[in-house]
Design brief:
CATH architecture of one domain: 3-Layer(aba) Sandwich
Strand content: 25-35%
Largest sheet: 5 strands, antiparallel
Distance between the termini: 29 Å
Helix content: 10-25%
Shape: globular
CATH class of one domain: Alpha Beta
CATH topology of one domain: Hypothetical Protein Mth938, Chain: A
Strand order of the largest sheet: 1-2-3-4-5
CATH superfamily of one domain: MTH938-like
Number of helices: 3
Length: about 140
């Protein structure tokens, strides 16, 4: 089970059950935390892998090269975090994921962190690709 603690505009997430998998442990303006380590740039996270050099900077910049990092992980579901606010990308930008039969959910980055943790806790094969912008 996960618990969220709010302090100002940042959130700390505590896991009730131990696990060696990558999970979000917090987020706030301009950063996300994975397993207690803070990242201030866009990244891709799966249960076993962490891609910290994901070059996506905005929804409008997404291309096939960005999605390759997600495709390589072969998830059942990909969650795209679009930054501090929700922005749906043009459908053609997500076509490579749909063609690979990967379910795609698009939401703001804080919601993506929470949703990823829930799906991870359910044992789903999920990847979160998060656009993190300076806060």
């Amino acid at each position: 089970m996960l618990r969220c603690k709010r302090k100002d505009s940042s959130v700390k997430i505590e896991r009730d059950t131990p696990g060696g998998r990558n999970a979000f442990t917090g987020y706030g303006a301009g950063y996300v935390e994975v397993n207690g380590k803070r990242y201030g740039a866009s990244l891709v996270v799966s249960a076993e892998r962490l891609v910290t050099d994901w070059p996506a900077t905005s929804v409008d910049s997404l291309g096939a090269d960005h999605l390759a990092a997600i495709l390589e992980l072969k998830p059942e579901i990909a969650i795209l975090g679009t930054g501090p606010t929700f922005r749906f990308p043009e459908p053609a930008r997500l076509a490579p994921l749909h063609q690979a039969r990967i379910g795609v959910e698009v939401m703001d980055t804080p919601a993506a962190c929470r949703t990823y943790n829930i799906l991870l806790g359910e044992g789903r094969n999920v990847v979160a690709a998060l656009i993190v912008t300076p806060g």
